[in-house]
Amino acid sequence: MLLMSGLHRKGIYPGTFDPVTYGHIDLIRRALRVFDEVIVAVADSGSEKKPLFSIQARVGLLKKATAGLKGVSVESFEGLVVEYARKKKADAMIRGVRMISDFEYEFQMALTNRKLAGDIETIFLMPHESYAYLSSRLIKEIARLGGNISSFAPPFVVKALTRKLKS
Amino acid sequence: MLLMSGLHRKGIYPGTFDPVTYGHIDLIRRALRVFDEVIVAVADSGSEKKPLFSIQARVGLLKKATAGLKGVSVESFEGLVVEYARKKKADAMIRGVRMISDFEYEFQMALTNRKLAGDIETIFLMPHESYAYLSSRLIKEIARLGGNISSFAPPFVVKALTRKLKS
Amino acid sequence: MLLMSGLHRKGIYPGTFDPVTYGHIDLIRRALRVFDEVIVAVADSGSEKKPLFSIQARVGLLKKATAGLKGVSVESFEGLVVEYARKKKADAMIRGVRMISDFEYEFQMALTNRKLAGDIETIFLMPHESYAYLSSRLIKEIARLGGNISSFAPPFVVKALTRKLKS
Amino acid sequence: MLLMSGLHRKGIYPGTFDPVTYGHIDLIRRALRVFDEVIVAVADSGSEKKPLFSIQARVGLLKKATAGLKGVSVESFEGLVVEYARKKKADAMIRGVRMISDFEYEFQMALTNRKLAGDIETIFLMPHESYAYLSSRLIKEIARLGGNISSFAPPFVVKALTRKLKS
Amino acid sequence: MLLMSGLHRKGIYPGTFDPVTYGHIDLIRRALRVFDEVIVAVADSGSEKKPLFSIQARVGLLKKATAGLKGVSVESFEGLVVEYARKKKADAMIRGVRMISDFEYEFQMALTNRKLAGDIETIFLMPHESYAYLSSRLIKEIARLGGNISSFAPPFVVKALTRKLKS
Amino acid sequence: MLLMSGLHRKGIYPGTFDPVTYGHIDLIRRALRVFDEVIVAVADSGSEKKPLFSIQARVGLLKKATAGLKGVSVESFEGLVVEYARKKKADAMIRGVRMISDFEYEFQMALTNRKLAGDIETIFLMPHESYAYLSSRLIKEIARLGGNISSFAPPFVVKALTRKLKS
């Protein structure tokens, strides 16, 4: 059988990743079914929300979490995500949709980004149903209240989060 | 500059397309940004809904509507779409999401299809905002009531629909 | 105090009204706070849904239900509602929004109508909270199953519905 | 330790169950955590939708599916569910909520039932996340198209459905 | 007639209750139709939101508001609600659902809690339709702007809130 | 042709307008199709959110943006909007609905306002589809990240925002 080759497709998966969860990792794996290369772009998020982890720590945890995945790179960025996507010559931005209210926000973002950069498509992927409710915010809240988060994120993330919350 | 090559990615865009609208065509164009090949798969839909146009007519209108688009083919299929996607060795199924209630249904379909065929991803694309409200059902209803649908579908579709409704 | 006069504003309230409920009447009263004249436009609805009551019966029940309301007229229409609204020189179409899924459908209709007739605005009003769940379809279903619908529609509508379902 | 006794609580779980799925069975198990007795009430549904299975067949499949569950009985009913719930002296009606659009409909039903019978509460339970997308309608559609439904319903339901669709 | 006895069912109704509204009281009454005992569990909520009233004040207002209701107790708790529910040997957690966006959040919480403690069911109840829009946040906002909140909460809550906002 | 005169209808369009966008201006134009007079009421919003622009600046930008529109006035207000609407003898409050989650919040506000002032109706209008995603919050975020917002707001607003963010 002849294996046809196609264009090299590059997807960018932007987010705060504060910290990375099993839901994010699941989505990156799914994105690799469609893209030859997936750039996980970690937003510095200086303005609005204050991340718990530093940008370096968030990039570090993501690199560890995606170490075995071929075609994935992790980078931090500042400014508008569409500008970054353009600079990286990405074909599309990848976003996960978990629940309806999620989708509302994602829809708004995607329409705005399209207005700002019409050449970059946004594609939506659905995480595995067992991660449908998962969010970085949620696992931080559970960890703060002393709950067990080992089924929500890799062991080294759990450890980093526990250490962080103690400090 | 060196142009890297990647895997040949095949997406399948299933639907009833009764008949094709500008919204569908917009979505196919967007899909071509991510996939090297897009198979538009027209469902026979024997069981539940009764299409206005025959499967041959719907395939014919779609072929005409996508004539200029490289990498697009139009085919009809019977049975489960995931089985067809597997047979075609597609990497992913493509679905458009217009509004919330749409997404609900799409979400349910995608989760079910994932259960039936875990190896085929579903990706969601957003049509252009001016097609956000468009549906085949809607333009048939407007045409039936004597309204002008020329901004919703290509001229040859408008003509076919007008002829059909007179018969 | 000087009473200023303004433009004569005409609103059109289209629907199937099969049959009129307390929810519809509540909405007409609210519309009169904004419009000098409200035309209740009863759709013949030949194509898709088959109304239980004839167009004459539906117009008759509505006329009885709005008998005491100054500025309200009841008419039947065929074809596209925007065409009818234009013919009547209406400033706006009035629609009630009860629940979210309702709004989805209403949103789609309003955007389509705007495309078909950009000069006619659609305005949305909220019925009283005790009619938030009410629909003609629902009271027909309850009546069919032998339930008491006297708190959902005027006595003469209840009587007409009971008679109709027996026949 | 002393085991306190409480009031005997009776819940009624109404539906069409055409046919019973793993989602329904999961919900009945959950209801037993709150109610001492759960009556599964199978609606005859004469008026609107035409069930695929006869009322006898649907009751039979449910009885088989709940055979091992103490406190569960299966019955058919006609007319308004609130009337039936009252006759059975039920404390509450049980409904499963899967997705948003589901909830919309359920909300409307619950508000209407409360108006018809203010003494009977409606409580909502959430099925297991792997049944979040499951519906009787969906598995019938998949079965019709030749798909494998063995992970959606018990073996004897799969068999009955296959036999039914062949006839 | 013989009165059957059943298992003693204990429900836990967690929240911030800052302060208690007529909506909360309505929900507690409804919960008593299903549970023999309802524990109103007031979250200390140290981390995220800063309540207006102290935990003692919130518990005090709730005790006054539920004084006449047999089977109701009010307690404060810290940490994860599922841990508290387990310690109290509750059969289920009770949550009210008012509107769609509410339900989204509740759904996410319930799925997470189920993952953390699979043995504790979450049940949803619907408040009376006239409390469908009510929230503690809303009445605090109205009170701050000088509005009359006497139809939203008991007189002693109104008084406490007025006093608090003046200080 | 005789031009009939009607009652002078006054609508109030409340908001924070921080700053005014093309979406707001579009809505004001639409409101003028139904109302003889539209009062744009700028909320001081002392309590909860901290506006970027002072109340004077926001009123100033709005006045400039609506300079050419006959029947429009811009004012600031404090306290409850319904009280202000009453004082102004407005017939209705005008709100724009963009997306579903929007509508949820709007619905809650409208029901609460109705409870506080049953004589003032809330009417909902839909902005043009190209402003469906637009919000003051969004354009501030884009401007902060260095994005081009010239298609979202008039040039003098863009200039004011750029100057403000530099300071």
Task: Describe the 3D structure.
The structure is a homohexamer of 167-residue chains. Chain A is α/β, with parallel strands linked by helices and 167 residues long. Chain A has a single domain (10-133), classed as Rossmann fold. In chain A, 40% of the residues lie in helices and 19% in strands. Chain A has helices at residues 22-31, 55-65, 81-87, 100-116, 136-144, 155-166; strands spanning 5-7, 10-15, 37-43, 72-77, 92-96, 121-125. The longest helix of chain A is centred in the middle third of the chain and has 17 residues, at 100-116. Chains in contact: A-B, A-D, A-E, A-F, B-C, B-D, B-F, C-D, C-E, C-F, D-E, E-F. The C-F interface holds C 3-9, 11, 30, 33-37, 91-92, 97, 100, 103-104, 107, 110-111, 114, 121-126, 129 and F 3-9, 11, 30, 33-37, 91-92, 97, 100, 103-104, 107, 110-111, 114, 121-126, 129. Strand 6 (121-125) of chain C pairs antiparallel with strand 6 (121-125) of chain F, so a sheet runs across the interface.
CATH 2nd-level architecture of chain A: 3-Layer(aba) Sandwich
User: Mean pLDDT of chain A, nearest integer?
Assistant: 91
What is the radius of gyration of chain A computed over CA atoms, rounded to a whole number of angstroms? Answer: 16 Å
Secondary-structure element string of chain A? EEHEHEHEHEHH
Tell me the name of the CATH class of chain A: Alpha Beta
Helical content of chain A stands at 25-40%
Secondary structure tally, helices of chain A: 6
CATH topology grouping of chain A:
Rossmann fold
Note the main sheet of chain A: 5 strands, parallel
What class do helices, strands and sheet pairing of chain A give?
alpha/beta
Largest interface: A-B, 31 and 31 residues
Number of domains of chain A: 1
| Shape estimate of chain A | globular
CATH superfamily of chain A: HUPs
Span between N and C termini of chain A?
58 Å
Number of strands of chain A: 6
